[in-house]
Queue: 3 jobs
Job 1
Amino acid sequence: MKHPKVSILIATYNQEAYIKDAIYSALGLNYPNLEVIVSDDSSTDNAFDILRDIRDDRVRTYRNKRNIGRILNHRKLLYELARGEVVVFLDGDDFYLDKDFLLEAVELFK
């Protein structure tokens, strides 16, 4: 397969000021076969409301019923939700600057 599916996994908690930029930076990458999965760890701010407003078939969002903590939230993303052959983590308060990052990273991975 020329472009294996890549899962970009974002665990977030109370990052309403940044989460939209993180997601749109992932969606803006020059990679044709990706999914963005966001797991909100019961944020007490408006982070999940922002997630619900994003309309893109490549994005799946989940909200934990209770706060399970950073490590378990990452574990849930990786072992329960990711569908890609390659997995990349992105923090909810970070974003990609290089639009070719995944193209180059997957080539190195191969």
Job 2
Amino acid sequence: MDIVFWILIFLGTFSAMEFMAWFTHKYIMHGFLWSLHKDHHHKDHGSWWERNDFFFIFYAAVSIGCFVGWQYYGFWAGLPIGLGIFAYGITYFFVHDIFIHQRFKLFRNANNWYARGIRRAHKIHHKHLGKDKGECFGMLVPPLKYFKK
């Protein structure tokens, strides 16, 4: 029975991370930590690394903290929560950093309805170079209006 709870918690955590991506992006990245996120919108540097990548480190630390809580402190839900955060992070990295921003030159020719919708939504967001007025949404499920043919 534990495995059923772990799977449900994993899936719930993975799904909740889409909300967290939206919330963090709208209120933190485009809010009081714009100084870290700004270089993601303004490519005024020659580095592969962006200050924006510190957000990845934060969520990795939260995931690792869940694993530590599970392994050493008896927090039984720490494993599925940590795995859910980790799985979302891997998915986000593939969709956002590899597919959309081409930090690694993979999936360049993907042209199905989902790929077009994700690219269109992200392009609209990046049209706004400032802190304000940019539409913010989760990464995996942007608003349906971007999936029009």
Job 3
Amino acid sequence: MELETLFAEHRDALFRYLARYTGDPDLAEDLVQETFLKLVVRPPGTTENMRGWLFTVATNLAKDARKTSQRRGELTRWAAEAPRNASSRADPSAEVERLELRHRVRAALDELSHKERTALLLRADGFAHREIATALRTTTGSVGTLVARALTKLAKRLGLDQGEELVP
């Protein structure tokens, strides 16, 4: 498959996943580019599960970036979360609540193990258990357990009742 086709097909999903994984859209954009650079420099031996390969590489890059540096600072995070233009602003108190919830969810995600966070975020992006298992180098049977455990921990850390959702 051509690089342009792969990029068009997977770029947005990779960006969304990495932005949630790292909590930093700027870093996520850099990691997407680095993922596709790795595809050009060192392509996988097989193209059978290209989506899984791309997300595995992206996850490893994000994990490495997380280990080697702190996020770019509160100012960058705040700027990324600010509304894009004045006409899109909601009620200021609702905006504050939304940002507070986002920070609480981000903090709760950061408390999960690498495997739990990755499994949960990949599942939220629509990955099948088989694809998640490949990305995490685990069995498909353990993926359901990882996702369930991650959801339980998130709900507990966020103080949610059984069945309560994060977003209305």
